[in-house]
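Co-fold these.
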Amino acid sequence: MQRLSSYRDFDWVLLGFVMLLSLISVLEIKSATLHTKFHGFETKQIGFLAVGLLLMFIISLIDYHRLIDIVPWAYGIGIVSLIAVRLVGTKVLGARRWIKLPGGIHFQPSEWIKLILIVAVARYFWNLAGKELTWGDIGKAFALVCVPFLMVLKQPDLGTSLTYLPVLVCGLFLGGIRFKQAAIIVLSLAILVGGAWKAGKLLKPYQKARLTSFIDPDSDPRGSGYQIRQSLIAVGSGGIWGKGANKGTQTQGDFLPIPYTDFIFAAFCEEHGFVGALGVLLLYFLILMRLIQNAQTASDLPGTFIIMGVVAVIVFQIAVNVGMVVGLMPVTGIPLPLMSYGGSSILFTFLALGIIMNIRMRRFVN
Amino acid sequence: MELATHPEQPDMGANGKAEKIAPGKLSAAQYLIALVLVILVAGLWRLQVVSADNFRALAEANRIRKIPVLAPRGKLFDREGRLLVDNYPSVSCYLLREQVRDLNADLPLIAQGLHIPVEQIQSTLRRFQAAPKYEPIPLKQDITPDEQAFIEAHRNELPELETLDEQRRLYPRDGFAAHLIGYVGEISEDDLNKSKYAFYQPGDVVGKSGVEATYDALLRGVDGSRDVIVNSHGKEIGHLGQTLAKPGQDLKLTIDLDIQMAAEKAMEGKTGAMVAMDPHTGEILAMVSRPSFDPNEFSVRLSKSYWNEIINNPDHPLMNKAIQAQLAPGSTFKIIMSYAGLEENAAQTMHVQCSGGASFYGHFFACDKRHGMVDIEHAIPWSCDTFYYTLANKLGIDTIAKYATDLGFSQRTGVDLPDEVTGTMPSTVWKLKNFHEKWYAGEVISVGIGQGAVAVTPIQLARAIGGIASGGALRRPHLVFPDEVPGDELEAVHETFPGSGDKTVQLSTGNWQLITDAMAETTISGTAAAVHMEGIDFAGKTGTAQVVSHSAGMTSLGTGKERANAWFVGMAPRRNPDIVVAVLWEHGGWGAGSAPVAAQVINAFVTKQRRLANNLRIAAETPKPATTASVGSETGNTVASTPKPAANE
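Predicted complex below.
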């Protein structure tokens, strides 16, 4: 490979924003677990971040075209590992999502498949570049994403499976889907989903309850509406300036559910107020704009596709997670990238960043 | 998989157009992202800026729980500061329905841990179904340490269980002084609507009867509260502050424990009432009503069986007969007759030949003996009916009624106890008002011996006769020293329990001496000679009141529920007595049967008085040999026959 790339071209600004957000995350995890048995999760999170950074630097050295070359194999392995989860996975809270590996590591294939899908979709549309998308092409793209989507949905893990969809949507959008095609797809999906909802086959009862309580949080304040209600109270009571670090009554009093993962933004909003929340969203905005800028300057089509795939996933997760926290979206269990506690989420983000760094460093190649 | 068909390395370089995505699409993505973030910011604005106050209130309500700190109720002491009613700490268990996820699933565990049947919890829940959800439901009172530990250990599984420290009343056992003390209980819905209870809350414990009820405002104190911070499991994780409870005021009753004990003992096995009072002040020294009840049973949840036992007892154990039994006074009324006759100057010169009765208005009215020639000085100790028939006939009903009303009959005395009754004093007006009938002159004859429509309470009788013996000074009977009670509260008590109160009636010295001497003679040679106490200036009057009305005087006592009521009013010393005792023994037969009760109480009183005087004397180191023979059971040293009150009087 050409050694024209150098760390001068590494996106230090992007990394700066990312590390700033990670720092905020660590502090909030510390606050949110202060009085719980999860006390000390912030150090674990720092560990995850360290590993993530290391992996990012390693992967940024690998030409992303090599990844595109091997992605069919990775995709195959991903599908096999999902089957393995189904067969030998560890059951946690009624869902099989994890494979126990020797050494006490829990491996969650669904998180890695997200990354594989981004690269696979990039490769697929790269092959179709310059062509008008036929219905066949669109169908194949759907198949590419929906096979793992349905398998993860079955685990059941609605949250993670949903994050696959923006990859597909982004791919189709950038790949040149025509408005008419898009309209037909949206319409038929709406009919399909509506029919399945009616038939009551689509969602698990708890998922249905979440949707109902999303529409009316006070319908069952102690049941499934509880989480939304407590989250709204946490965010709202934070006010403009917040209650101060480690002083959120909803967070510290254990009223807010899982305040270190899915509801970390609610905890942050309670303790740091509207001003703090605005700051975090601004950081996200800067990160995303920086990513899109990198997508624009990518030297070739797959580079753009990969970066935009990552952007799509992050935007989707922010929209759904923050939307949930402020009561605009139902509870789905999607973590907030770079904020929520959790190794898999961090590793995904930093691996994706690694690939993006490589794309950026190679922007003047060719 | 489609991807598996490895495509040849794309030759897009040749197709320059395809190597780049149209910049418009990426700009569109930027706008889309900006839009998403703006929507999220709007969502945050809505919660954190627009509705912040509302959510702040919700967050506070979430974490802060107001736990009431109940004020300990004031204790009750006797006149010498001996403890009568105490409190003991107790823990109650409440159910918070707001905390509950699935109550039905928890029921078996709760039932097991608190040792109450599931059905009982369910019926309690049904009872509170209509109550607001935030209102705690009392599950069990006075729980054991084991049950407390159970609740503590199951905080996470059963966050709906809450304990509350309370103070419970500890009353004397076996119904000792139960009627005058009363008992406490949860305020009833009816009471809550009364203006007296305007500031009370549902679930408050209030005095239900006796002194507990009258002085509830003083005894109850002011509850405080503690603001604690709880987590989502209801566990206390901190506290904010507290308003201290203001303990209720202790009250010193006018009751003398020694006299009360003697009275309780004397009334044992009898049905009826007795009241002992200091006529100088109106202080009640002892008050007993029989049968009694155990107020301790009322302070914790009353058991159904005990309630049935109480409510089905034909002798009405909850009734304080000292102030609520209104019965014909029988011959004790002759003191009132004598007073009226003497003050009217009609009795002094009256001499009546008693040949076992006399005829009036065509009816024969019997006397229990042939007394021969009787004058007023003998009519009292002998209790000659014929004399009083004649006197009544001479005075007429309205004159009798005037003097009787002056002495407080047919009115409440104003004693500081709830539900006192007025009794009845007939008169022409009274009859017209109540029966729309004219008074027949013949009806006055039986009034002369305290029969007919005359009805009095023991406390009325004690106050009236005590008043006569005190030269006409009548006092408002009371159980709590007025100086123990703040002025406005005392006023409120007097307003709540109006009555004839303190007053002075006309009584000439000669008449006063005559009546009191005659009453003293009663216990020497008269109807109560059997209870004569050597060395004690003991005066009294018996009364045997027919339960079933016979127009023809006292010829038989009757049996069972028709047996006559035995009355006795006694005092010592005869003039300006330090103690007056009225005894009512329902269906006790001859009034002389009640005399020993009064005698025992008065004996206990005098004995104590002398002992205290003696102690004082010994303390003053002026030893003198005793003058008279021993009387009391406790001490051989007695002083003069008309002792002056020595200690705390």
